Amino acid sequence: ETATSSRKRDHLQICCEQPVEAGDAGFGDVRLVHNALPECDMDAIETKTRFLGRALGSPLFIAAMTGGHPDTLEVNRRLARAAERYNLGMGVGSQRAALEKPELEGSFTVVREEAPHAFLCANLGIIQLRDHGIEWAERAVEMIDAQAIAIHVNSLQEAIQPEGDHNAEGCIEALRNLCNEFSYPVIVKETGSGISAGTARIIRGAGASAIDIGGYGGTSWAKIERLRANSPELADLGETFLSWGIPTAVSLCEVRTTGGPIIATGGLRTGVDIAKAVALGADLGGMALPLLKPAMESDDALFAAVEAMHRELRVAMFLTGSRSVADLRHARTYITGLTRQMIENSD
Ligand code: FNR
Questions:
Q1: Rounded distance from Cα 4 to ligand 1 centre (Å)
Q2: What's the pTM value of the predicted model, to 2 decimals?
Q3: For ligand 1, which residues put their CB under 6 angstroms from it?
Q4: Of 22, 91, 103, 160, which has fewest CB within 10 angstroms of its CB?
């Protein structure tokens, strides 16, 4: 068992057994404006949408979580079954462990076996991209026959985890090279600290096809790494950075000004949050933690969770008079409180 692989198992276990969320993604400050005369049939509302040229069943995206340890295989199998059943896009977790040790591929390849038609997104850290180049990106995509690759950025986690990489130099160039040469769409994805307008412009300038906000206010790597910390110093560091990051709703308003497709992930907890994210400019709303718990339980628990999100999304669409996701993108919102104050400080 490699260090990367056992870390994957630790993360799943911590996320299931302990409180790993921190802060506020800002969706409580966002209200969709109620339409008292929606003049549409709720049961005829279309939740289907498109992303990077692909038709999807709904804007719910199964965010990157796991793979790379044998114990993660069943979770990925269930998530993939849900992706196939509801025609949802799905990201796998970082494939680094399986790229380092191909015997671990099974926990990733199961995803394509269970979801032969789904839009799948490969996943690799930007540090691994910089250090191993386009070849690792190609292997990651081929491993699951993916339609796109997410390159995740996680400086906060790298800074506070015991085995973290502290040198982020050369990452933008590595990203630019990948976007220039790769034949698949590249998505740049944060993992809980959000993306600013300035960073989004750099990412788009490098040639990325889409951005996954990965904003603050949901699963917190400061919290997870604090729980994993092997020294009081690192535990204190995690504690201090519990409130670091750009809340998802704020990040969304920053990134939407730069144009291009957006996945909003980080602290979305209901179908109403997905609707709010779409109204604020997201193409898809990603969820990790809310799907992980039912995915550890059973297929039925996971399907029930997905259906609950869809039911809530549909009601929110009805009450805003949105017959389609395209209509929902024009739904009006009220933005109050800290979220409003932060947006007023956007550049
Ligand atoms: C993640 N996330 C993640 N992201 C990524 O790009 N590569 C990865 O390997 C992982 N691994 C991972 C494991 C677990 C157990 C969780 C819960 C999450 C981050 C994830 O995709 C998402 O951006 C954040 O979790 C925020 O969304 P939620 O959890 O607040 O809905």
A1: 16
A2: 0.97
A3: 11-12, 15, 63-66, 93-94, 123, 150, 152, 189, 191-192, 214, 218-219, 265-268, 287-290, 292
A4: 103
